[in-house]
Fold:
Amino acid sequence: MPVPYFTPENIAKFRTLLQTAKHAVVVTHHNPDGDAIGTSLALTQVLKMLGINTTIIVPNPFPEFLHWMDGVQDILIYKHGHSRSKQLMSGADLLFCVDLNALSRMDALGKFIETLPVPRVMIDHHLQPEMKDFAVAFSEPGACSSAETLYHLIKDLDLLPKLNTLIAEAIYTGIMTDTNGFRHNCSRPEVFYTVAELLQYGIDKDKIYNAVYNSYSYNRMRLLGYALEKMIVLPEYRTAYIALTKEEIASYHFKPGDTEGFVNYPLHIKGIVFSVFMSENQENIRISFRSRGKFSANEFARQHFDGGGHLNAAGGISHLTVEETIAKFLQSLQEYKDELAAV
Ligand code: MN
Structure:
């Protein structure tokens, strides 16, 4: 899929916003991942170089495997206390929404942002963006990651001379994590040209890979073992799913991000083209969807679980019990039997 170029009008409008801005806030989606955090950190560094005082605010904690990144110590977590975050957002003259396509992807934080008169800028790559929520939108549903979109934006603004090792490292982390270590969603040669350019800034790609992927705690590895043991395979639907209750998760001393990537494992089974991972928390059930080929995880998540994302990777939510969510999922799956057989 080609990546659409940003329109000159969008770039011009954005330049004007940048020229007058003094204080900016960068926000991301709920359960921020490597792309959300990497893109936010890179963007923050670029904005600071432009003389714009910038703070990152995320809805809830981010995974431990990102704690090594430069600048994460300054990220505010909205769930841990609203007053400082609200003060900063109210005082900002520019609000960046990174790796998210609609304010609804931020729960309580999104509801607060909706009440502010501050212009919002989207930097994102999810399908079906809610353009009306934003003053300027840099939306590239064909890009592998928001980090790649940010890189395009930096180029288009002629800001490449500002790039340094730390910014390149943050962008690389976003690209690497959203492609699951360059396995998915990176068939366009441009992704690798971008990576080649980033490597010229002296980043250590092996260090980044090890910090993100080879950093399981003992408990996280045991939780993965338990999840795989619990996996249900539905060969007639070429589907596998895993559902974990909050008690099960808590018994492995869960830390944010511990179940990240678990949804990918069922796809290692030959013939499986759709994988679903449900994890219960205090408020609801978060669901991850992964698919192969033309089968749309995005459509399934949108139709049945109030979510969305990308063709082969999407998220959704359920406010039912775990048993009811599984029952709803199995019911919903029935109408896709032929489609799944044809992948
Ligand atoms: Mn992303």
